[in-house]
Amino acid sequence: MLRLTPQQLDQALKILRVGGVIVYPTETSYGIGCDATNDNAVRRLFELKGRSQAKGATVLISDISESLRYIEVSAKAQELMNTYWPGALNIIAPIKQGSPISTRCAQEGTQSVRVSSYPVASALVCALGRPLVSSSANLAGEGDVYCASDVEIEADAIIDAGELEYNRPSTIVRTVDDKIEILRQGEIKIRVVTR
Q: Is 15 helix (H, G, I), strand (E, B) or coil?
């Protein structure tokens, strides 16, 4: 596996553009990713992790406005985006018709998206110009990885930012119309107010 520094993003981008899989730091832990529009790359990422193809995957996008290309954004989803993005909040919503994201990333007609607050992850997705798969860089069933030397997955490259600060995993919410369901309460605390 090629080891890169956070200053060597150009090399990481070359790997992503030809369908490669890389490990990179995020605001919660090390993540593993590929071009989310490249179905073969997404399939390979799942195989490297030992992840079930039925589980789907979160994708990082560059900004809030880009979400409109990939998911149906309700008023409640928009409110969450405006409040918590960039940050450790994955929003799951119905897939927008014509989305170029690989269907392997989807789950039951929905897609999970996030705008990352971590500079390296954000720079990667912005420079790539396409959504970037963001799954934890651990083998299926194992714990999150906070140190590059602990990554066991044989990706094509790793962007080594050393030991990351320990943070809880991202919060995951599902939005349908103006209802939100908290699937995992993680780094960002969200309260659902019922009336």
A: helix
- pLDDT-derived band at 192 (thresholds 50, 70, 90) equals low
Residue position matching structure tokens 């605390």: 189
How far is 194 from 178, CA to CA, in rounded Å? 12
Rounded distance between C-alpha atoms, residue 88 and residue 118, angstroms: 9
Q: Quick one: the chain helix, strand, coil %, rounded to 5?
A: 25, 25, 50
| Cα gap 48→37, rounded to integer Å | 18
List b or e across 38-71, with b for residues whose CB sees 16 or more CB atoms inside 10 angstroms: beebbebbbebbebeeeebbbbbbbeeebbeebb
Plot region of 2 (φ>0 → left; ψ -120 to 50 → alpha; else → beta): beta
Per-residue pLDDT of 70-126, as tens digits, reads 999 999 999 999 999 999 999 999 999 999 999 999 999 999 999 999 999 999 999
Tens-place pLDDT, residues 157-186: 999 999 999 999 999 999 988 889 999 999
Structure tokens at 85: 């993005």
Contacts of residue 14, Cβ cutoff 8 Å, sequence gap at least 6: none
* Alpha-carbon span 145 to 137, nearest angstrom: 6
All structural domains of the chain, each given as residue ranges with its CATH number in brackets, are 2-184 (3.90.870.10)
